[in-house]
Amino acid sequence: MNRFEDKVVIITGAGSGLGQAAALQIAKEGARITLVDLNETGLEDTKSKILEVAPNAETLLITANVADENAVQNYVNKTVETFGKIDGFFNNAGIEGKQNLTEDFGSDEFDKVLSVNLKGVFYGMKYVLKVMKEQGSGSIVNTASVGGIRGVGNQSGYAASKHGVVGLTRNSAIEYGQFGISIKAIAPGAIMTPMVEGSLKQMDPVNWEEVGKAFVEPNPMKRFGKPEEVGYLVAFLLSYQADFINAAVVPIDGGQSYKY
């Protein structure tokens, strides 16, 4: 399939995990991609992997902190300067933050998580939407979480930020559908990414793999999701095939969010 032939896509958090998986899938289908991450080494790794599966792929690498509004405006401007337009935006960069009960959750840590996970998503939409509105077309996929549609213990900052992403997604979708722009979110559950691995290691640095097995046992599918499974979903949602999906929050969690 070449759903992204002659398309330009920005992916934040592209240096690993879900961002990298989506970049590989979309590049294989012909996209020109701006890869954004705070980790320069991760960006180079993603570019290298892209060239293995799509040797002719055009990529633009930008090291940026999505919590910095000027940096976000810069990666949007650089994309337009380089590729001339923005057809798709995977607004994905995020952090988990430290785990703690709400009463013990540090205020600085709370601010840090919201700055990346919520303000970063807001800034991305703010500047990308201006470009897409002028074009009269575009698709945005924001990364929320099952933590954005139900509670997750010991992660006040993360849960609050991801609930905020859901709200921003739905609100902006209502505003911009009239301009030919579709905006949706994904709500991943336990996907085995470096961030999830780090979360398990917070729980038990030594036996984190055993903790992981126990963590997914209640899941109806009793396993972690794979980043590439999320990559397939993101590619579909950013493609023309999902243009009429707007304001939706799509779980990809093995059924976790529906089991009580």
TrEMBL record:
Entry keyword set: Oxidoreductase
Coiled-coil region(s): none
Pfam families the UniProt entry points to: adh_short_C2 (PF13561)
One of the record's GO molecular function terms: oxidoreductase activity
Transmembrane segments: none
Protein name, as recorded: SDR family oxidoreductase
Similarity comment text for this entry: Belongs to the short-chain dehydrogenases/reductases (SDR) family.
Gene Ontology terms: biological process: bile acid metabolic process
